[in-house]
Amino acid sequence: MPLKYTDLLEVDLGKLGAAVDDWKQAVGALKSLDEEARKGMKAKSDSARWAGANATVTRGFVDKTTKEFADLHTEANSIYQVLDDAHRELSTLQHALKGLVDEARAKNYTIKDNGDTTVTVSEYVPPGQTPTEKAGGKAQQRRQSIADQISAKVGRANDVDMSVKSALARAHGNDLHDAGHADYDSLNEAQAARAVELAKKGEHMTNTELKEFNRLMKYNGSEGGGEFAVYFYKTLGPEKTLEFYGSVALNGTAGDDKASLALTRDMQRSMGLALANATDPDHKYHLSASWGDQMRKLGGQRIQIERAGLNPPYGYQVLGGLLRYGNYDANFINPIAGHVVQLHHKNPNMFTLAKPLTGGIDTNFGYNPSGKVGVGYDPLTSALEALGHSPEASKEFFADKHPTVYNADGTENKGAKLGYTYFGELTDKNFQWPTDGSEVPSKAHGVDALGHALESATLGHAYDDPTPTLVRDEDSAKIMKQVVHTYGNDPELVGQHEILSDSLGRMGAGYIDDLNWGLDENRKGSTFAPASGADGHAKFGQSDTISFLSTLGQHPDAYAEVSSAGQVYTTSVLEAQVGANGIDEGPARDATRSGAIIQGILDQARADQVKDEGVAADKEYNDALEKRNGWVEFGTGAVVAAGVAAGVAFLPGVAAAGIAATAIPVMTDTGQGMVEQQIGNVIGDWTETKQQDSSEDVQEQVRNIFTAGRKNSESPARNFMENHHIRDNSVFGQDLEDAWTGGYNDGINRENQQGQLPETGE
Question: How many whole angstroms separate alpha carbon 598 and alpha carbon 323?
């Protein structure tokens, strides 16, 4: 039965500490007996000149007795080491838990145990009263944070409890006449040894054993300095790792056993996170570089997996399932990703046909039990997904102008030149994307993964991070400049890569400040110019900026992302103009005009697309807006980060599991709370102006687009004027109105004159 949080909170660990002391003394005493036996009676027995039956019987008895003393010492030491580690770890967990519980009680929160090591933390609401905290607010975020931390600590304590029980049983062996069955120097070693023991059973593990394996990997593989993960992967070895994972993945996804599938998905995630931990050279414990070399060698070779039948997979196909989880170090993942791209360049169909030929295999999952972004037969998709979760690695990957050349066996071809960059190769319209699934649009999975990898490279966080931190530097800005130029000037490419348009939208939102600066021709004195010495900024230029925004406006998800980001950024710039001596009116006008221009460009591009594609396109836009509105409403607007992440707003402020927040740069010269409040007002306006119940008449739809767009373009300044008591008929009020009206019309004209024609894919 899983531990409850009260079990950990109330347990008297003093008794366990006393047991540790007793076993420590026992270890010392048995060590003395062991030494005395070896140096005493065994030494005398070995040197005695016995003959006949006495020599055989007596010497054998002495040897066996001496060994038992040694085994008893081994067993006692294993018990001591395991209990000592458990006592220290549980004490640390209990101390942290008490602090969290005290905080919750001080805030009058209630803690409910869910019976599965997790808890729910709620606001205490007296009978007959209504909650005082707004949904999605900071108080709710803090409650969820406390709940998550408590759950993590109770889950970890539960793992320690179960691992200790298992380790003690293996050390003792359940034989009263034979000691020392297992030798452990730590609880961590005992846990890793058990994980290896289970892994060696492969697909023959029962669901109960697979559940135990997942628990061990979850609480030990991805945490700490890598000791557990390194022991596990080093003991198993590269080839056995692939054989184990591949066989269990195929077995767990066959048929319609939902319980088995869920456990297999947990295994994929926990093993992937552990592999990232084990291959990180910055950790105290890590696998040697040769481990990556061996994986590259195996990547282009067939791996024998019984369930794959007569068509065994390549190593990279199996490895790809693990790479989809974890933030990997560039030294490990980039050579693998580069080798995969180069193999594909030489033979685009190399991996396409390497699928199981036996019956009963559900090809909707393959080596990617998660079922997300492909089946897992195409390692290029998997490698790009790995980069999508590894920001530093993906940045290096796409910024590399002279990639290392690899031979077919994964070894370096020193002195050779590749002749292309990875960015150029993967954004080439003639690139042959491989299929990765049985469904018709399966080639799109690789393109989707490319978008995720580019998000990671340009924004500095995993593409699906629900609480991202925007990290931009010189290299990421250079990659973003390539993205803007390449996709902005080739709408046909965006049409081919339609599935990554949502990624382009999030990238555009993450550089909305530089898009405003680009519209202003990147002038040094621009309101949007970065501060002197600031890095992570790209000079897109006015032409590429307009082309990029025009292209994004043609795609519903991208439109929704950039439109909302534009309102957030403009609002923050306006608030940043308020100082002790009043409002700096010039930059306020600039911000209003620039934000309106962006909205005008997006709306004209959207209107052109709807004119070309009619009702279907309008419905796609409305669906995208509805989805975005749902996320925003869930988080009740934006949260402006403080501390190390200052200068960034997140939409939504609280993201549901599996939903990544959009990170938007903001100006925060004024109070954080004031900016949040104003952004909340503007986002409220934005969600209300979405089209509702559009008619079948395209012209009516277009009118709705511009009606909503004009309201969006003026919303930041309207709310700013109301908040700071600026009269409509004042000179400054009239200036702001002229700025949003003129800016919006200017954006429409610029898109008509300099934007891209609608891309219908015909």
Answer: 38
Confidence band of 440 (pLDDT split at 50, 70, 90) = very low
Q: Tell me the pLDDT tens digit for each residue of 334-381.
A: 999 999 999 999 999 899 888 776 544 444 578 999 989 988 889 999
The 10s digit of each residue's pLDDT in 453-492 is: 999 999 999 999 988 889 999 999 999 999 999 999 998 8
Judged by DSSP in three states, 622 sits in helix
Encoding tokens for residue 591?
């911000």
pTM of the model: 0.90
Question: 219-232: string of b/e by CB count within 10 Å (b at 16+)?
Answer: bbbbbeebbbbbbb
- Residue-wise pLDDT for 626-671, tens only, equals 777 666 655 555 667 654 456 888 877 655 555 678 888 988 755 5
Of the CA atoms within 13 Å of residue 505, those in its CB half-sphere come to 25
* pLDDT score of 641: 62
Which residue reads 């008297």 in tokens?
12
Residue in the structure block whose two tokens are 């040697």: 288
Question: Using alpha carbons only, what angle is made at residue 73 by residues 69 and 78, rounded to the nearest 5 degrees?
Answer: 150
Q: Which residues contact 415 (CB under 8 A, 6 or more apart)?
A: none
User: Phi and psi (nearest 5°) for 736?
Assistant: -65, -40
C-alpha span between 698 and 701 (Å, rounded): 5
- Identify whether 281 is preceded by a cis peptide bond (ω within 30 of 0): no
Radius of gyration of the chain (CA): 31
Q: Which of 313, 232, 305, 307 is nearest to 273 (CA)?
A: 232
The three-state secondary structure class of 265 is helix
What is the DSSP secondary structure assignment for residue 256, as one 8-state letter? T
d(CA 309, CA 678): 61
Query: CA-to-CA distance for 451 and 483, rounded, in angstroms?
Result: 10
At residue 120, what are phi and psi to the nearest 5 degrees? -120, 130
Highest mean pLDDT of the ranges 62-76, 394-408, 640-654: 394-408
Could you tell me the CA-to-CA distances from 526 to 477, 530, 531 in Å, in that order?
19, 9, 11
Instruction: Return the H-helix or E-strand segment holding 583.
Output: strand 582-583
DSSP codes, 556-574? HHHHHHHHHHHHHHHHHHH
Q: What is the DSSP string of 587-628?
A: HHHHHHHHHHHHHHHHHHHHHHHHHHHTHHHHHHHHHHHHHH
Please say whether the beta carbons of 402 and 336 come within 8 A.
no
Please state, in angstroms and rounded to a whole number, the distance separating the CA atoms of residues 368 and 415.
36
